[in-house]
Automatic annotation (TrEMBL):
Alphabetized PANTHER family for the sequence: OXYSTEROL-BINDING PROTEIN HOMOLOG 4-RELATED (PTHR10972:SF184), OXYSTEROL-BINDING PROTEIN-RELATED (PTHR10972)
GO biological processes: intermembrane lipid transfer
Species in which this protein is naturally found: Eeniella nana (Yeast)
GO CC annotations on file: cytosol; membrane
Protein family membership: Belongs to the OSBP family.
Pfam family, one: Oxysterol_BP
Name this polypeptide is given: Uncharacterized protein
PROSITE patterns tied to this protein: OSBP
Any one Gene Ontology molecular-function term assigned to this protein's record: oxysterol binding
Cited SUPFAM superfamilies: Oxysterol-binding protein-like
Length: 419
């Protein structure tokens, strides 16, 4: 990559604000992968994902309530997803690149195949759909039928530049459900920023806080920092676990604290602090098993499936052929424009395949279990950045509460596109 083209790219993003799709990037900074695919990483670690499903009283090995043991297991899984979503995906010589901007209705389906000897994990189906283009929003679901476990949610991003970093706020949330236990976990999505733009090697650092609210009441607060705050290391976090939200108002009430690097190792201790070097090993990311993602060959994919739809653009990006990239992208964009025009004329809207938009202000959703989780954690259920408190005055004038939710019945009835 030439220094001058990188510098001119940096100059072009210095004044940039908002929708990442409007950012014109030179070929060397383009990724051949659609942003839609990035949500697959919620499902990589099947063993950790399904572990809580079989944690009942009978497996308890200390005096902790089993509900607390399950929350700790959910936190293990969550840390492993942070690693795959934000770090291990670009390990080695790779750095973050600008992903392809998914079109409305684009889908990605695949399976994390159970590779265990006794096939005890079951396959995890990955079901992703681009439910909005402006602003870009992806609906995601990881479904493990063997363990009756479903992780579902949606994600939208807004970005703005500061002097040295691209700052990203995530909108949306995830809900993990162990259906046999009738237990749910609301998970908020942390803010992040891209470091290393000036040196040409962008990488993600998580920041501020994210929360996990269990339907059992247990509550976890994760605090993130990069080099130099908690320690001199990147990808550092501290996670305190409480009996409930109210207990979290005083850190001294923490039942456990887990700390370390979400991309490496972490330790656990009882109470509000963990000794930084001692402490009991909680999770060693190097030992976490990932299952293999199996995607249908492109020739067998539907034209709405990511890798088929973007095939020519992706090939051109790999070859660095800017003319073909731009021609093939234009074809997709023009087709999308024509579809939107037709919908406008027919006064119709693009029908989402497997996700519904749910208005939490409507009467029929007042007893919704997900709203209850927001209330338990004192989080705003409005359309505000993920993890914002319901008391945050900056967002009190936001009135909408529309959220995307996976519709399993629709997916089960799907006749054309299969994993
Ligand atoms: C910020 C980012 C796009 C969004 C990606 C998200 C937040 C998408 C949802 C996933 O669940 C988690 C996730 C992981 C990615 O790390 C994050 C991406 C990292 C970089 C990318 C930017 C748009 C890339 C910009 C490229 C530069 C050079 C301007």
């Amino acid at each position: 990559m030439s220094t001058s083209s990188w510098t001119s790219f940096l100059r072009s993003i210095a004044s940039y604000n908002g929708d990442l799709s409007s950012l014109t990037a030179p070929p060397f900074i383009l990724s051949p992968t659609s942003l839609l695919e990035y949500s697959q990483y919620w499902g990589t670690n099947t063993e950790l994902l399904v572990a809580p499903a079989s944690m009942t009283e009978s497996v308890a090995d200390n005096d902790d309530p089993i509900e607390l043991t399950r929350l700790l297991a959910v936190i293990k899984w969550f840390l492993a997803t942070l690693n795959t979503q934000y770090a291990s995906r670009i390990r080695g010589n790779h750095s973050e690149k600008k992903p392809l901007n998914p079109f409305l209705g684009e889908v990605f389906v695949a399976k994390f195949k159970d590779q265990s000897d006794d096939k005890s994990l079951g396959d995890t189906e990955v079901i992703l759909e681009q439910v909005s283009h402006h602003p870009p929003v992806t609906g995601y679901a990881m479904l493990n039928r063997k363990h009756n476990t479903l992780l579902e949610g949606y994600n939208g991003i807004r970005a703005f530049m500061s002097t040295t970093a691209l700052n990203v706020r995530q909108y949306g949330h995830a809900v993990l459900e162990y259906k046999d236990l009738d237990e749910q976990y609301l998970i908020t999505l942390p803010p992040l920023h891209l470091e290393g733009l000036l040196t040409g090697s962008p990488r993600v650092e998580l920041e501020q806080k994210s929360y996990i609210q269990a339907s059992t009441g247990y509550y976890a607060v994760l605090e993130y920092s990069g080099k130099g705050y908690f320690s001199g290391r990147s990808n550092t976090f501290k996670c305190r676990i409480y009996k409930n939200y109210e207990q979290s108002l005083n850190k001294a009430n923490a039942l456990y604290t887990v700390s370390g690097q979400w991309s490496n190792t972490s330790t656990i201790g009882r109470g509000p602090e963990t000794p930084s070097s001692a402490g009991l090993m909680f999770l060693d990311m190097n030992k976490v098993k990932s299952e293999k993602l199996v995607v249908k060959p492109i020739s067998k994919q539907h034209h709405l499936e990511s890798r088929r739809a973007w095939q020519k653009v992706a090939e051109a990006i790999t070859k660095g052929d800017y003319k073909v990239i731009s021609d093939e992208k234009s074809k997709i964009e023009n087709h999308q424009r024509a579809l939107r025009k037709r919908e406008e004329i027919n006064e119709s809207a693009w029908e989402r395949r497997w996700y519904d938009d749910i208005d939490y202000t409507s009467e029929e959703h007042q007893n919704d279990r997900y709203i209850k989780l927001f209330e338990m954690a004192h989080l705003s259920a409005k359309n505000v950045p993920s993890g914002v408190r319901d008391t945050n005055s900056k967002y009190l004038n936001v009135d909408t509460k529309t959220h995307w939710r996976f519709n399993l019945a629709k997916f089960n009835a799907e006749k054309i596109i299969h994993c």
